[in-house]
Amino acid sequence: MSKRKKPGRTQPAPADQPGHTAYDHPTPAATAQVPTTQVPAQVPTATEVDYDDHDLLGQADWVIGGDAARKARQQGLYAGYVLFLGALVYGLPIVQAVFRTSDAGSLGEQLRSPVAIALLVASVAALLGAVVFAGRFRGPVVPPMPWIDLVLPAPLDRALALRRWWRYAAVGGLFVGALSGLTVGAGLAFAHLAGVVTIIVTTLIGTALGVLASRLWLWSQVRSWPGPDRSLILLWRVPDALRELHAESLRTHSANTSTMAGSALTGNLRTARLALTRPVRHGRSARLRPGSPFVVLVRRDVLGLRRTPGAFLSGLGLTVLGGAVVTWAFTQPAAPSIAATIGLLPLYLGFGAWAEGLRLQADNVGTPSLLGTTEVTEAVTHVTVPTSLTVIVLGSWVGVAAALGSLPADALLSLWLVLVLVLAGNVLAAFRGSPTFVLRPQMVAIWYAVPALTVVVLGSVVAVLTKAGNYTWLSVVSWVVYAVLAWSVSKVRRLTYLHRS
Amino acid sequence: MGVVAVLAGEVRAEGVGKTIDETTLLLPTDVSADPGECIVLRGPNGSGKTTLLRIIGGLLAPSTGTATIGGREADERDRAVRAAVAALLGAPTTYRDLTLIDHLVLIDSTWGGDPNSSDERGLALLDRLGIAHLDDRFPHELSSGQEQLFRLALTFSRPASVVLLDEPEQRLDTAKRQVVANLIRERTASGGTVVMACHDPQLTSDLATRVVDVVPAR
């Protein structure tokens, strides 16, 4: 809103009325109360009202947060400083380790190959897609509830009233993008895979991607509420995008933030999941075909994926990406061992995206039995579909490796162990239950991470031992992998009957 | 599911009570029900009716007394008990990606129902409850009353010698309560045992073979 407003009010504020402040103005209700039957000559003419948006916002800031709010905002600078130090201390060594290899020439050639470039583009596209997905539930502009309820209803320019939260996200996106580009470029240069100029190029590309990601995030938030102007043009018209944000939408995003943060801190994953997922509406006409208990549960999972194409596609994208990196790590001598570590996480997450049936089974524990199957049988049926799909993806990549003439026999064994690990990790994750310890953020974070960490750490050990040709220790680790599988089965049983005691 | 003993619908709860820390949820109470009977648990809110039903269903271990189903300890970990007891105690977790009819087909199939007539059985049950026209809806698309009818359909769609219901009449209009009463009558007439908590005097007088008054702890 400009500083000069013409809201079409019927009469000016009675400045001398007791209790009124400098910011008091007649309410819009006064306009509504004008009888429509009045003759035009009797309708008072519109007056102009001066608003100093900056001054009003300053007053609101002071009333809501006082000086503490200003100081709290300065904490953002400190967070950036910590992030920079973290990238310096941990980011660079990790990236160097990623590209450290005994055969830099071959690795350089492979990284420049069309497949590697296609995977890189797919990864960036997946990241941007994830940002758009996140923006539907939690956009970059999420002011506190009192701000939404008490300040936004004032006749302020919404772009100005919300600008602060957008700036946090924009600066954050720019900073994280630049830092990521700098870290990757520096890692490549230190590993002698590229020149020093690459550092500048990757930093610039990272910065651009950071800016694009934050703008896509905002655009997705705007699109989460119906309205006339939802085109991509809003990507570079940020003030207009901010003006498009509806108060109800902001309230929903703020509530989603509270729900997800609360659920994450208390370990209530079902609530967090339901807050993140859209209600299912696809494939209503498709019917679940009856069959034997095993077959009908498998059909249930297939039908579930048909009705949630987003889950199927995100699982496919992650598994294809993770499968490619893991297969490359196991079949190509030039690939660094740490590549398996990097590929295991998307592979694990992709499997998880296809395993909704498993999580729903875990959600049902403690409720009276409806299905006529045992808990372990039900869990086995629910991993059938994600396991089959993962085998298809991994098998395809193995086929590509074989076609390129590089398929060591030990790589197949190691990929089998990775598959078992990913499966067991997802069962562990679905049946992790609720935290039984005193809830501290660090403890909850570790509790969340245990299944993924188990997969990534053990999978990395398998990769290192496979590349080193240390088959004695590889056989020992393979037993540990099967022990993790047994642990996951015991978790299914334990959680299923835990409620009784 | 393997070989599972078929338990008769004999429900025995003798002096069952539940105390957690210093809080008494249920004073020692006796309940006895035989096949063909409908026992109604009556009592004010907070008297422990749901706790008693959970103990009888084997979902909760009693602090005092014993509960048995067909002569075996009521313990949900026992496959035979699980096969014998169908219960509507609170909101069952449904699959968000399955429609109403899909749910009934799934349950029917996992209990070994004939695949050739599974759809018909499911639709017939939905029809009995007056929600057959909603068969292709997802659970989150139902009103609260329709949701209660769907939960009842889930409970009645599986075979059981004992049916436990916690206030099946809630959120239902008078006509629908009569539909539910008929379903319960049919279940008892076919030799099933029904134990239910109920606040509706009309439903209680229509259905109850016996009424057990659950006394609040305080």
From TrEMBL, chain A:
It comes from Terrabacter tumescens. The chain crosses the membrane at residues 78-99, 111-135, 168-190, 196-218, 310-331, 337-358, 379-405, 411-431, 443-465, 471-490. The keyword Membrane applies. This is ABC transporter permease. Residues 1-38 are annotated as: Disordered. Residues 26-38 have a biased composition (Low complexity). Keywords: Membrane, Transmembrane, Transmembrane helix. The keyword Disulfide bond does not apply.
TrEMBL record, chain B:
Residues 11-217 form the ABC transporter domain. GO terms for molecular function: ATP binding. SMART domains: AAA. The keyword Transport applies. The keyword Transport applies. Keywords: ATP-binding, Nucleotide-binding, Transport. Pfam families: ABC_tran. It comes from the Bacteria. This is Multidrug ABC transporter ATP-binding protein. It comes from Terrabacter tumescens.
